[in-house]
Amino acid sequence: MSLQARLESLKQRHAGLESRITEEDRRPRPDDENLARLKLEKLRLKEEIERIRVG
After folding, report:
1. Cα–Cα distance measured from residue 24 to residue 22, given in angstroms and rounded to the nearest whole number
2. Taking all residues of the chain, what is their mean pLDDT, rounded to a whole number?
């Protein structure tokens, strides 16, 4: 997989997590544990995207 393809894949996963976080947050009783896990995963993806852009 090329670096550009990897970057696009990570961006898509990041956007998907953003949607899942928004959906969970809008529920009447959001699952805080699930939200924390999703946000952590999203942060890890963001960090990986930045490493690729810089590196």
Report:
1. 5
2. 96
The helix-helix angle for 32-54 and 3-26 (nearest 10°) equals 160
pTM comes to 0.89
**Of 51, 22, 26, nearest in space to 38 by CA:** 22
By the 8 A CB rule, do 49 and 6 touch? no
Q: Does position 24 have pLDDT exceeding 90, yes or no? A: yes
Q: Is the model's pLDDT at 36 over the cut of 90?
A: yes
d(CA 26, CA 8): 27
What are the angstrom distances between the C-alpha of 10 and each of 1, 25, 41? 12, 22, 11
* Cβ neighbours for 2, distance < 8 A, ≥ 6 positions apart: none
